[in-house]
Amino acid sequence: MIKGILFIFDKITEMLIASMFLIMVILLFAQVIARYIFDFPVMWSEEVGRYLYIWIVYLAASLAFRDKKHLIVDILISKLKYSLRVKWVFTIYILIIIFLSFVFIYGFQYAKINWALFAHSTRLIKLGWAYAAIPVGSLFMIINITRLLPELLKKDSDIKK
Q1: What's the helix, strand, coil split of the chain in %, to 5?
Q2: 3-state secondary structure 18-44
């Protein structure tokens, strides 16, 4: 049941990222065409593209945790015994979850504060939607790191032996 929910969660996240990326590319391409061919810049498209990019970064960072694709310096860790390595990585994951919990709390407060403000170049988007990427992305990262913890404690975890 949980695997099915997580599968749906993953697919929705991937579709959101792909959709936002497509919209961002179309908007910015239209901006370039409008500016250089028709000499009519569409000012709001750049700002909306920036907000979409922020969302893409936060959501994709959560998938990078899921797939263990974040950059890691393991020079010292690789010298530890396997059991110590597991404990070390587990501790690091817990510290990351604690940090992301703070990012979630303060990001939520920041988004709430800016919820009523409109974006600078358009009245169609409220800044709260742009800043909501911080708590949502942090929550998604916490979910994906939490998924790694039981796997990490298995005897055949993929920490380099």
Answers
A1: 75, 0, 25
A2: HHHHHHHHHHHHHHHHHHHCCCCCCHH
Angle at 80 between CA 76 and CA 84, to 5 degrees: 120
83-90, long-range: CB < 8 A, 24+ apart: 85/159, 85/160, 86/152, 86/153, 86/157, 86/159, 89/152, 89/159, 90/149, 90/152, 90/153
Q: How far apart are the first and last CA of the chain?
A: 32
pTM for this model (two decimals): 0.86
* φ and ψ of 118, to 5 deg: -90, 155
15 contact partners, CB below 8 Å, separation of at least 6: none
pLDDT in tens, 66-122: 988 887 777 777 788 888 888 888 999 999 999 999 999 999 999 999 898 888 777
Residues 31-75 pLDDT 10s: 999 988 888 888 888 889 999 999 999 999 999 999 888 877 777
